[in-house]
């Protein structure tokens, strides 16, 4: 007996999530590269406090790699993608709140809104089931 193999399509909202992951990854790489360049310049001029900025820039590169891996694997429904993305987006919301409380730009709300939207989409039944198939 032969079994019919069905091609299961990724839910449409996950395609938007994948797009946002790519955008976030690219922006993380660009921001981290800029912060790295500025921190290295400050370190060369004897400002040892720039070490923290350099460490945060390196963390930004790590997050970008995680986002890229998730963006690539989301279409296959890898089970580790969903909790990883929810964790990263949760950090985006927390960091945005901290920034707002400390007088950061109101534009933080845009990134926070996108992060909350991604979390909501990943917790919808159809999208959540995609990672449990």
Can you offer a commentary on this structure?
With 133 residues, this protein is mainly α. The protein has one domain. It is 74% helix and 0% strand. The chain has helices spanning 12-44, 50-73, 81-101, 108-122, 125-130. Helix 1 (12-44) packs antiparallel against helix 2, helix 1 (12-44) crosses helix 4 (108-122) and helix 2 packs antiparallel against helix 3. It is elongated, with a radius of gyration of 18 Å. The protein starts with 11 loop residues before the first helix and ends with a helix. Residues 1-5 have low confidence and may be disordered.
Brief write-up:
This protein has 133 residues and is mainly α.
Topology, please?
Elements: H1 12-44, H2 50-73, H3 81-101, H4 108-122, H5 125-130
Helix pairs in contact: 1-2, 1-4, 2-3, 3-4
Radius of gyration: 18 Å
Shape: elongated
* DSSP E strands, number: 0
Gap from first CA to last CA? 23 Å
With helices defined by DSSP (H or I, 4 residues minimum), what is the helix count?
5
Q: The biggest beta sheet, please?
A: none
Estimate the mean pLDDT confidence: 90
Q: What's the helical proportion of residues?
A: over 70%
Point out poorly predicted stretches.
1-5
Derived from helix and strand composition plus strand pairing, the structural class reads: mainly alpha
Order of helices and strands: HHHHH
How many domains is the backbone divided into? 1
Strand composition percent: under 5%
């Amino acid at each position: 007996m032969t079994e019919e193999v069905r091609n299961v399509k990724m839910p449409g909202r996950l395609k938007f999530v994948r797009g946002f992951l790519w955008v976030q990854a690219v922006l993380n790489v660009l921001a981290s590269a800029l912060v790295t360049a500025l921190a290295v310049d400050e370190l060369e001029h004897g400002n040892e406090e720039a070490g923290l900025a350099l460490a945060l820039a390196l963390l930004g590169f790590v997050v970008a790699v995680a986002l890229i891996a998730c963006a690539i694997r989301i279409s296959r429904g890898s089970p580790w993608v969903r909790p990883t993305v929810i964790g990263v987006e949760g950090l985006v919301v927390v960091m945005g709140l901290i920034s707002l409380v400390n007088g950061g730009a109101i534009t933080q709300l845009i990134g926070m809104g996108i992060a909350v939207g991604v979390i909501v989409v990943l917790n919808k039944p159809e999208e959540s089931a995609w990672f449990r198939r």
